[in-house]
User: What shape does this take?
Amino acid sequence: MNPIKLLNLKPGLCAAIVCLVACAGSPRLLAEDPLAAAARQVFTEKQDSVVWLSAVAKIAFSAEGGRESISVPEQEIKVEALGTLIDPSGLVVTSLSQIDPARKFSGRELRRGSSTIKVEAVATLKEFKVIMPDGTEIPGEIIMKDPDLDLAFIRIKTASKEAKGVVFRAVDLKNSAPGAVLDEVVTLSRMDEVLNRAPVVTRGRVSMVTKKPREFLRVSGGLPGCPTFLVDGKLLGITVTRSVRNKTPADVIIPAADVLEIADQAKSAKPAEKGDTKAK
Assistant: This one.
């Protein structure tokens, strides 16, 4: 096009022509990113496997140090966390530290004069609800905890009136694959109530794999309690929070195969709040 004539065009039309010319010289700009298409497919097929969990936590404290014991009043707080449906029967897995606020306090050591005070805390959860993608709130109960791996398993009370007619769209822990550094991954999650708990998809990469003390992976975009997939749709694992005393916690992924091993135990377990069931 004659540059003099181009200058006489309306600004909006001129910009559109320039954009088309640039795209014509760069075919890749016109083609959809294949990884984006794969991530969109995972999102479409698996988004309803992510749910919100809600409960009221009653926290009891004890503190001892030197020659005296210190009385700390009980507290009640509302907790919410994301979880992943892992069985069509209504089994959910989440990060234990996200629903057990006592883990943030228990074991802390505080200095008081020349004495060291050790704080212990225990949380009891009540009014436990699983909030489905459509907003339906169904009663649930914790049936197994694994404090070492920061996993908690929740059974939805499918006999409740709230669960009538509800379909639980679970991920398949058996349909999994291992990950390697720099693999492209897709993490599914949900916004909180402010944004109507809308489903979210995040693309990222595996940035670390460690085999000791067991296998953990780090990925960009991973969130505690949420599933991360490889772009072919295979489940990589569930994100939890790895904690070591006096060290900064880190969010890591537990491979799906390891979660499956404990989930098989959880299916026949009794409620943990009564028996404090732990994985073997």
Q: What stands out?
A: The longest helix spans residues 11-24. The first strand starts at residue 50 and ends at 65. The two ends are 75 Å apart (CA to CA).
